[in-house]
Amino acid sequence: MARLSGGRDLWSAPLQATPPDPLAAAWDALAEVLDPEIPISLVELGLVYAVEYRDGLVEVSLTFTATACPCMDFIREDVTDRLDREPWIRAVRIEEIWSPPWTADRITPEGRRRLRILGVSE
Fold first, then answer.
1. Residue numbers in the chain where pLDDT is lower than 70
2. pTM for the predicted model, two decimal places
C-alpha cells in the first residue's frame, strides 16, 4: 500500500508568533493533518478526542480506527510534524485513547460530506 503525502502539501505556513488563542490555533493546525489513506482530516474523522495547550506544550489525545491500524506511525508522525512547525509550540505530546473506542459516529458532518464526495460510504 502506497502512503499518500498525509496532506503535507496542504499545510499552511506556520504562524510567526503565539496566537491570541493558542488552543484554537492548535486545533486549526490539526485540522490540516489528513488521514494517510483518505484525504479527510483527523479532526473531521473524529480521531482527535482532545487538545490541551500549556506554556508551549500541546497535548493531543487521539485514537485510531482500529488497534491494528497500519497507519498509526504515519499519523503520530504527521501530528507531531505539523504542530512542531509552529515556533510558538515547544513540545508535542500524544496520548493514545482507546476508550471510548472510535466509531463512525465520531465523524463530523463535514467529514461525512467529504466522504460522500469521495464515494466512500460510512
1. 1-9, 122
2. 0.89
| Contacts of range 50-57, beta carbons closer than 8 Å, 24 or more positions apart | 51/23, 51/26, 51/27, 52/23, 53/22, 53/23, 53/26, 55/90, 56/88, 56/89, 56/90, 56/91, 57/89, 57/90, 57/91, 57/92, 57/93
Cell of 33: 493533518
User: Would you list the DSSP string of 66-77?
Assistant: STT-TTHHHHHH
Spatial separation of the C-alpha atoms in residues 79 and 92, rounded to whole Å: 9
Please give the helix or strand (H or E) that residue 24 lies within, else none: helix 22-30
Would you say 52 and 22 are in contact if contact means Cβ atoms under 8 Å apart? Answer: no
